[in-house]
Design a protein that fits this description.
DNA-binding, 348 residues, homodimer, six-stranded parallel β-sheet, 434 Repressor (Amino-terminal Domain), alpha/beta, disordered N terminus
Chain lengths: 348, 348
DNA sequence: GAGGTCATTGTGAGCGCTAACAATTCACGG
DNA sequence: CCGTGAATTGTTAGCGCTCACAATGACCTC
């Protein structure tokens, strides 16, 4: 059944058809208690017959609530941001809110400002920004906006409310796992300096080594892409036999590149070098070898983020601290432990 | 600068401040020609000073246009849907539209219906559905909705307007590439029967073989996941030496699983078995070996989809056929051609 | 300088809904 | 059979904007 392009019926039309006032129709739709059952039934039948739907704009104008939230994101084809976006939308919908998304190619001051303007013109009541880069967080802190903003993935240290996974803890889990397996030291391929998460993971790695009395080796940097991991992997391969036996890579995609470079250099994983990633993308289990990694609970991030934003919108004191941290989880696979199970459950 | 929670200024407030009527303010905002420069400047200054922003709901109510589009999607953490979503949002924003997204876990009749309701309550003027499954397309065709709907990825054969990549052509490119390389026949690991794209790719594969006078071998099925590819790969490994030298896998993730299973079975790629995937996810270049695959232009899909929807909304005759097909592109890498370049440009 | 034209600005009436209040109806005890 | 309070329904007035039209004024032309 396709759509029709006639002028849609209004509440008044329904009221006439049902023989009541428009206000009674409004009451029925609003689930008000004081409506006689017979009346309610008549109204509902009229609504059904006419295919009536409440006009969003009129309602929003009268109530001064659009029940719409905005989300600003970037890199939405990456697993992490995509998962976060999904979780946010789902959580918001569960609360009866609509979500308008703006996906940016780059999170610059300018593009962020335009995104907020665009959403503001769209009447959003609040915005969640998936802003993993420090500069984006700073920009957000500086920009004026007539609604509350919650940052997801921004890390601590700003005065904007936010939710994120505890990256430092994740890095400690990864690094500690490698040390516990007997490695003397752990190398680290970090993400871009600009990214808060990259900084937190690097800090967690460094702190773990230092508490274990180990001098951290040289830190490598990539840009999250498999290619940058591949390049770093080629460099790392040169250190094998000179103290390099374990690498903590700041995300799974770069770890994929590292694995390939090591393989091409004749370095075996995990026998010669153990590798740990971060994110637990769906493919990680099928890398060669399956990748030990750190899983983040994006769904929890989404729920908490929306909850926090709604508290701010309602003017309630937030139910949680203004900065929520979600606990990540280590997933052990064959890239650090040759006896880890195969994808289908059989041992290697 | 955080937000403030005072009652925001209205157009009338601005008008008073600027010493004009509210209508003049409206004209300035609407870029109407007939406003004296001095007046316009005064109004703009007042707007700036008061931090005025036009009220979205009032505007939408008066114009009967929300300038909001809806998108219904599922599996948004997969590369294809995520890319499509991104492209749609970007294209819509370029046209000045806001995009409200609903991401579903499953595309059932019920969830689709709820999604359309949700968007309808949100006042969208039209909806793009990323509906790669046949049942979803059928459901969409049956559901009532007071706005136009465009389907993306649904394939031909329905009476709903839509845009999709020419999957049949993509499959012909992949299969033809393998035949041209001298393979006697090509096996196929297909996606779920339910998916239109899976059916189209299988048909393209079958047609190519048949036009070459080759009897298509047994068809295997997976569910797009690496795990299902891994399982199928184990089965395929059993056919090596009995006529199996080339496999066309319906997506890159399953191809990843196939590669792993083959490797574990001691089968070399591409020397013993050549493998082609579909999608060209960013990781494909870093698989072991780098994967030959078919690239889809999601950005074009997004642009065309939005253009088509806007035509429908405006009541214009669509600028293009009601079903647009975008051409895919073969990307040759080492999984079919051992001399293909390395990620960093050096030959293998 | 009367009359006409054009550019510029103002006025009034909605858009379709909800909130606040007013009016009506009903049940029931005295 | 009437009064009383509660339940139910109706009436009115915006919400903040745009549209259609009216009004004003500036500028020409003859």
């Amino acid at each position: 059944m396709a759509h029709t392009r006639l002028r849609p019926p209004t509440m008044a039309d329904v009221a006439r058809q049902a023989g009541v006032s428009h206000q009674t129709v409004s009451r029925v739709l609003g689930d008000h208690p004081n409506v006689r059952d017979a009346t309610r039934a008549r109204v509902l039948r009229a609504i059904e017959e006419m295919g009536y739907r409440r006009n969003f704009s009129a309602r929003a104008l009268a109530t001064r609530r659009t029940r719409t939230l905005g989300v600003v994101a970037s890199d939405t084809t990456l697993y992490g941001p995509a998962s976060t976006l999904f979780a946010l939308e789902e959580a918001a919908r569960a609360e009866g809110y609509l979500v308008s998304t703006v996906s940016l190619r780059k999170l610059t001051m300018e593009s962020l400002s335009e995104a907020l303007d665009h959403l503001s013109e769209g009447g959003v009541e609040g915005v969640v920004a998936i802003a993993p880069q420090r500069s984006a967080v700073d920009a957000l802190a500086e920009l004026r906006h007539p609604f509350p903003v919650v940052i997801v993935g921004g890390g601590p240290g700003v005065d904007i409310a936010g939710v994120s996974v505890d990256q430092h803890l994740g890095a400690r889990l990864a690094t500690g796992h490698l040390l516990a397996a007997g490695h003397r030291t752990v190398w680290h391929l970090a993400g871009p300096e600009e990214w808060q998460e990259a900084a937190d993971r690097a800090a967690g790695w460094r702190d773990t080594l230092e508490s274990a009395g180990v001098e951290p080796p040289m830190l490598l940097r990539g840009d999250w892409s498999p290619l940058s991991g591949y390049r770093a992997g080629q460099e790392l391969a040169g250190w094998v036999g000179r103290g390099l036996t374990a690498v903590f890579v700041a995300n799974d995609q770069m770890a994929l590149g590292v694995l390939r470079a090591l393989r091409e250099a004749g370095v075996r994983t995990p026998q010669d070098v153990a590798v740990v990633g971060f994110d637990d993308i769906p493919e990680a289990e099928f890398f060669a070898p399956p990748l030990t990694t750190v899983r983040q609970d994006f769904s929890a991030v989404g729920k908490q983020g929306i909850a926090l934003l709604l508290d701010l919108i309602e003017g309630r004191p937030p139910a949680t601290a203004p900065r929520v941290a979600i606990e990540p989880q280590l997933v052990v696979r064959a890239s650090t432990f040759p006896y880890a199970a195969q994808p289908d459950g059989t041992p290697l």
